Amino acid sequence: MRRVGKLCGLHFLVAIFGLASLAKADPPAGSGATECMFYFPDQSLGVCRAVSVTAARDLVHTAQILPLDQTGTIVGRGDAKEQVRKVFDNLAEVLTDARSDVSQVVKLNAYVRDASVSSEVYGRLAEMYHGNAKPAVTFVATRLQNPDAMVAVDAVAIVPGSATDKARFGQSRKYAPSSASSFGILAAGPRVYISGQAEKGDGTLADGTTKTLESLVKSLKYCGLERDNIVQLKGFMAPMSDAPAVEKAVAKFFDGATAPPLILVEWKAGSLPIEIELVASSPKVQNRPTVEYLTPPELKKSPVYSRIVRVNSPRVVYISGLVARKEGQSGAEEVRAMFPILDETLKAAGSDLEHMVKATYYVADAEVSAELNKVRPEYYNPDRPPAASKAEVTGIGLRGHRVTMDMIAVPK
Q1: Does 223 reside within a domain?
Q2: Are strands 136-141 and 105-112 parallel, antiparallel or unpaired?
Q3: What is the number of structural domains in the chain?
Q4: Is pTM beyond 0.85 here?
Q5: Average pLDDT rounded to a whole number, residues 336-364
Q6: Closest CA to 168 of 107, 98, 93
Q7: How many CB atoms lie within 10 A of CB 406?
């Protein structure tokens, strides 16, 4: 497999969205033939546009993993290639501790300093994944908790073997800066996605984190769940130098018990101290719809996102971060160009716009953020929009583009 050099935005977009072919083949090693289906794989970049996964297996959700050694020291300072190598080595060790491995990864999120680091990530993925079995991948450019880190990742991977009936957590080697778990296990079966919530508290990051977690647990209880059902937390906050205050508040909130894995992304335009979204395991309940779009009575319903989505489907579809095919467009053109790609991808995976369950929108400026708000009502059924979070960030890790959509769906 050839090494990918520095890629321009157009090269990437043509490769993954223009020339890639539809495929349903080559499940990860060790998994059953029907456990994964892969759509629009790209051999040179090591990614698929979408991966459909059975809900009959446990799924590892990792923390945000950095290129650290076992003492917590950065590896390869100033060397993007070396840091990418180290971060994937660390991911492999965390997944091994979770009784999985890198061949089982179905979704990967990469957090990079800038687009040049994204090229190194693509190169590494192309070396790691052969055939059609490749993960769906989303990029975002953001500052990381270690100021010398140029890249971090988190992943979702299948756990081969017998499934469990509840969420569980594990500590791995110290490759994530947080004191929370290194990974959480999403038990086979139903799961719940809760949109980003934000509470002001006393205005400090620590109290805002605590109050937001309290609000999220209240939403969980509306679904008959408790805090120990939480599998992973993702927070959007600023500045990243204050991340230790968030970690401390999370650890205190879980009162000595193992806290779920935590991912932090620095945003640029948050009106409140922090916004947090989560995924949780849910017990199996007979005779439920494939997807339930829920709004707790104390929260206001929105036509463009659901407060809670409970998924009872036997399959889930992870979609790579989608971007427009062309570079340098206006905000309106760039946003509108993504939805036909989304529609095409959903159809290939046997889904549609009314079966999306989770969306994370990364926007690089206020113009595309405002356009996204305008466009979504044109595409979404107001009774069935996905759970969602939107964050204005430094960039999306791809030159010439300012917005990406990271989506999860289920088949019709």
Answers
A1: yes
A2: parallel
A3: 1
A4: yes
A5: 97
A6: 98
A7: 24
